[in-house]
Amino acid sequence: MTVDVAIIGGGISGLATAYALKHQGLDVVVLERQAHPGGNAQSERIGGFLMEHGPSTVNAASVTAAGLSTDLGLDASRCDLGNEVQKRYLVADGALSGISAGPMGFLTSGYLSLSGRLRMMAEFLLPHHLDGKDETVMAFCRRRFGREFAEKVIDPMVAGLYAGNAADLSVSAVFPKLVALEREFGSVSLGMFRRYQQGAKMPGSRLYSWREGLGSLPKALASRLGTDIQTGVAVQGVRRSPNGFNVNAGRAGNIETKTVVLSTQPHVASRILDGLDDAAAAAAVEIKAPPLAVAFLGYKRNQVDHPLDGLGFLTSQSKNRVLNGAQFNSTMFPGRAPEGCVAVTGYFGGARCPELARLPEDHLIAEARREFQDLIGARGEPIVARVRHWPLGLPQYEIGHLERTACLRDTEKRTPGLFLTGNYFDGPSVAACLGQAEKTASAVSAHLAIQQKQSRHKKKLKFG
Question: C or N terminus of the chain, fewer CB within 10 Å?
Answer without folding.
Answer: C
